Amino acid sequence: MYVDSAAEEEHVFPITPWNHFLENIDRDLSFWKKPVQSLRSLKKKGNLLQGKSIYVHESAQVFGASLDATDGPVVIDAEAKISSFCHLKGPLYIGEKTQVDMAFLSNCVIGENCRIGGEVADSLISNYTNKHHEGFVGHSILGSWANLGALTTTSDLKNNYRPVKLLFQKQEFPTGELKYGSILGDFVKTSIGTMLNTGTVIDLGVLLPPKQEQKKYYPPFSWGGYPDEFYELQKFFRDIETMMQRRNQVLTAFLKDELAKIYALNFRA
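Predicted structure:
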């Protein structure tokens, strides 16, 4: 998580990437040289188009979807697959080989080889993350290789409408934002029906089982936030190796070593 070290302590703001998606996607499009499908060909495939800033790579598959670029570009990269009845509202970028099914996406940047469904708004989702089922993710940041169980939902607005504060380790960070969902680190897994409070921070490698204790911050490799319950390191490696194999990826020696170092910083393996 990035914070502005130059700011005064009472005005430290964690990053809010969704506030910059429009300008960043517009800037990136000035370098876009990839072949795209014409708007006419997209309409012939049963797609409903609004606006002209729609860029669908020629190898992407988009059928029977709604693409709305009135508020910003919609960009779908190579070999992505968008199924029927999805509504995609810009500004929006969908990475290579990502699959989107029965989804409503708006103001998002989604990495490569993700699986996306349900509603996602104002959020950054990193590579290889799976949020493929019903549930809402809003004003949130999801790391790589995260897996959200069906109906996992983030709250991004407090019922008293006050600015959201984030807790990281033992330090509290005011965001200055009325809306801020959750931050999930790499390799985080949530169970079916997980409900995350406004401003929840979940660190690297956390597993949230059903009926987990609600916390504002979950430390690395913790098991549901229960005291003294953590992912055993070798089991963690076995689980993520299996997960990565399903996407034709491997756990490299370098990444394994880096994860082991982080684990050792928190407790003995």
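Summary: Residues 1-9 have pLDDT under 50 and may be disordered.
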